[in-house]
Fold Amino acid ABC transporter substrate-binding protein.
Amino acid sequence: MPTASGADGGDLLDRLRAQGVVRLGIAGEIPFGYIDRDGRLTGEAPELARVIFKRLGVDRVQPVPTEFGSLIPGLNSQQFDVVAAGMYINPERCEQVVFSDPDYQMLDSFIVRKGNPLGLRDYRDVVEKKAKFATGTGYAQIRYAVEAGYEEGDILIVPDQVAGLNAVEAGRVDVFAGTALTTREVVRKSAKAEVTEPFTPLVDGEPQVDGGGFAFRRTETALRDAFNAELHELKRSGELLRILRPFGFTEAEMTDLTAKELCGG
């Protein structure tokens, strides 16, 4: 029998409570959502989902691994109930699903040699000091550097942050740009390199901050709203950072951004 919530955004939460389990779409990406070496579901999104759904009266989470590009189609074809993969919230995706408010934001930072000899703090510094600049294949940081005035043809493109660290350590480049989280993690054991303070890149003169959250089918706004209510309480109490900290997240990744802002208004 439909509940009151069914009239204004789906009755999935009632069904999940009755079943006692929610199916989470994950993409096998560290640190966002993955199966660890012991075969256990973990990552920032599944661990947060465990806490929130427990508060909503759903005791268990069940992973449904898929390719990242199949997460939204899989959600909409009901292969799982929620996307729990740290998915960035953007206008294109907002046309296909409804998002929770973001549980984290992602800023940029640089890998530089110890002591940051050129004093590089943002993309404008890279341009002004004519630094040799590298970033990863397909990274958003390519656009951010070009936006600041760096010649795209002069950028060294490497496969990932490990290759970026190696390029800095070997002196092939002065700086590698990536997300604050990935750069911070990769330099932990380096004797030659360090990471700069996180910063916000500019696009068209406006700060560009990415944020990730949970995706729900467009018919399930009642579940999204209930999820958001618990998420906001975790933010207020500071519990959210405690849950995410084991996966490399810090105070710099906490955010008050909303899905509405990231969807474009």
